[in-house]
Amino acid sequence: MTQELSFQKFIEQSDLLEEFKYDFNEKAELRHIETQGPFVFNYYKNVPERNSKRYHALGHLLEQYIYELLEKVCQLQKVYISPEADKEPRSFFFMSEKAFTNHHSPLLILLQDHGVFRAGQWSQRAIVHHGLQHGSQIPCIQMALQAHYDVIVLNPNDNFVDLKIEKEWKGLSTQKIESSSLKMVEIESFFSLQKPLQCIPKRCSNTPEEYMTYVWDYFISKTEGKDVAFIAHGYGGLVFMDLLVRRKSEVMSKVYAVALIDSQHHVRHQLGSDIQLLAWIKHHCREWVTSPKPLNKPAVTVLKKEFPMVSAGTEKYDLAPSSSLQSIFKYFKKALRAKTNSNSSHVPIVTRSSTKI
User: Fold this and answer.
1) What is the dihedral of CA 11, 15, 20, 24, to 10 degrees?
2) Residue 123 has pLDDT above 80, yes or no
3) Torsions phi, psi of 94, nearest 5?
4) Nearest 5°: phi and psi at 91?
5) Model's pTM, two decimal places?
């Protein structure tokens, strides 16, 4: 990362420098700026609760930092949902500049797991312990842009705003506190915020499912002539299947491939016995699962047999998205070629006899 976008400079602006003397090195790994060691969870000896709150504060810093990387490094645009409700708490997503206007490029949509993961993250834990190359979605986004995809980076877990946390965070970010003792009081105040006390749901984003449906209805479905692909990790797979059931005909006609990674969907409960949907997922979905087998080798399980399943090339859940990335893009390329050839074979050939009146 450039000096202007260094994580340490980002931390300095938050007045949490004493708590987090860390930055990402040239390999995009989080390291202590003095010892070069990895992140240490037990910063406070024998005080697990305080260490946990410190880790949550780090997560908030990473969340905001990655948002900035999406805009400044990946050159994505931030789009708020519910544009008419500009005075209410609302969520957003990121997209490449011509995602809705360039009809010649396929559109890739990233849908992460459920939890603290915000836009641009596959796994916060993987970012902390393995670096941005493994835990963030940035390598996937860059790979997609280089392959001439347009990209939408969703933020399905951004469902509520906690007014108390927002107020404390803004205070820490803007105040320059000279007294170290007073500064520690402010930091303690931020760390003491554990349970949301003043939560307000964000419009059209109470749940990941509601968020996904809204973005589909008001943005993705309005793109004409776009070939759409999804990468969905963990609970993101369940969210995609929910969308498929809710918007059956639209999704089946626009989406040409779905790469699921250790998906938490349940075909029987979500799709039931719908023959059309079962046939569609069989031909348009593939799942990469954690497995001791080499990448892309068949990995059939007893519980799931609805569509092809292959190894993600790792047994670690947090690393499955980054490990399977190359294989997923090869799958997309093959699926898009098959779709293009199928469309071409259905174009009627105009002959001289057929033009006669």
Assistant:
1) 10
2) yes
3) -115, 145
4) -95, -170
5) 0.86
